[in-house]
Amino acid sequence: MPFKTLGLHPDLLRAVRELGYAQPTPIQAEAIPPALAGHDLVACAMTGSGKTAAFLLPILHLLLQSSRGRTRALVLTPTRELAAQILEDVNELAVHTAITGAAVFGGVGMAPQEHAFRTGVDVLVATPGRLLDHLTHSYAKLDSIQHLVLDEADRMLDMGFLPQIRRVFKHLPSKRQTLLFSATMPVPIVEMSREWLRNPVPVNVQRQSAPAVGITQAVYPVAQHAKPLLLVELLRRGDINDALVFTRTKHRADRLARTLVQHGVDAARIHGNRSQAQRTEALAGFKSARYRVLVATDIAARGIDVAALGHVVNFDVPAAPDDYIHRVGRTARAEATGDAYTFVCPEEEADLAQIERAIGRRLPRVTVPDFDYHQPPPPKAAPREAVSRKAPAGRTRVRGADPAGEPAPAAGRKTPARRQSSRGSVEADASSTTVAPVPGGDRRPPARRPAPARRLATGSQGDDSAAGPATVAVTPAGPVGYGRSPRPAKGRRSR
Ligand code: AMP
């Protein structure tokens, strides 16, 4: 079905064409007609399904029918990154119109955001906390809102935003259109929709979430302490060209980024302890292919939309199946193809089994030929006496391998952001991370295929079940030795 049959304004159709959208995705085909007719919607849409355009296009169309000068649409999102991404989508889709937008989120100055309120931008994209900060001031008014979007409602609920959302609602006119988008539909979301929406049209309500079409998924069994070097090896072999890599904690994100940099991989990190400027720099550097790897915690990665992203790596197995689905949805967005690799250590097998039950199939196990699965864990560094004697209670920190077994950084030194020669090199990331030479490490810079600028990729659909990742041996289902002998390779696969 072509876009033009949806009855959208010609200026929007032109933008859609220029963005290379050949036809509406299923969620767009289902959501746009009732939204254009003014109905409320409860839409169950996965990340990467094209859900943002599914709510923005009808809203922009309706905004074009009424007079400007007041803020008439509000999109509430759980994270800053997602807010920034949605604003980017507003600007792209409305490029041939006079419609304006602004994002309102924490970590950056209030003044430009205040200006957006005062000038009455047409569309505000906001996180609930910062929006409420503004709403304590008289310049901030939401009384002309005609269209409200609750995006990633399940995630906002998980993040404890429900009380803030309730407070935002007090500032909104009761006569409005409300579109609720959520990847999953737990009971509280259904209750929210009953309370806040009027006869909502259910769209694409799925009983069970599933990863977006086109994702090739594989599991790499590996001992916890060998995970960083397995990632380095996959990058070195060129099996992974660039990747968004998820870790369980901010600390592990920091340490992994440091290890990658020590091995000559251009890597940046993004998590809640990073300033907004650092997050923006990391994301921009990754999008422009300056960084080959972006290490992220789950929450921070919400809203990251890097078209043509080839790989998502779950460095740690997500604790909940929904998080797995969200994460792997970062690749293969809008039905392009992508790979999602999950590193699993024995302690994480139970979580993986839960994910496999939720997605309804067992994922192929993969071993990497020639990778040293037997490498011993790094020695634990002895506690530093001076630290343990002098540090006040509660602040003593023992340097060494973390409990999860990741290699401890060698005694660090601060290097300026610069490159040294590739052999034995230390390559600092933009934030001058603390690095040190890797004892005995393979310091050859990992292989890099020519890196195309990351851009929109649409069209081809991969077969989720067929192909395994390139140049790896796929083992039969069943436990594979984590640090024990890998099973003999059954053969190579290539795509
Ligand atoms: P999201 O809106 O987060 O689900 O992500 C959608 C991604 O797919 C973004 O990169 C969009 O630019 C892209 N996209 C949205 N709609 C389409 C479409 N109809 N055809 C191709 N790509 C699309």
Q: Which class of the domain at 3-203 in CATH terms?
A: Alpha Beta
How would a textbook summarize the main sheet?
A: 7 strands, parallel
Q: So, CATH architecture of the domain at 3-203?
A: 3-Layer(aba) Sandwich
Number of helices: 16
Rounded mean pLDDT is 75
The helix content, as a percent range, equals: 25-40%
Query: What is the CATH topology descriptor of the domain at 3-203?
Result: Rossmann fold
Overall form? globular
Number of strands: 17
Task: Describe this structure as you would to a colleague.
The chain has 495 residues and is of the alpha/beta class. Among the domains are: 3-203, P-loop containing nucleotide triphosphate hydrolases (Rossmann fold), CATH 3.40.50.300; 215-359, 3-Layer(aba) Sandwich (Rossmann fold). It is 31% helix and 14% strand. The strands form 4 sheets. It has a 7-stranded parallel beta sheet with strand order 3-4-2-5-6-1-7, with helices on both faces. Strands 8-13-12-9-11-10 form a 6-stranded parallel beta sheet, with helices on both faces. Helix 5 (111-119) links the parallel strand 3 and strand 4. The longest helix has 14 residues, at 80-93. The radius of gyration is 24 Å and the shape is globular. Residues 383-445 and 449-495 have low confidence and may be disordered. The site of adenosine monophosphate has 17 residues, from helix 3.
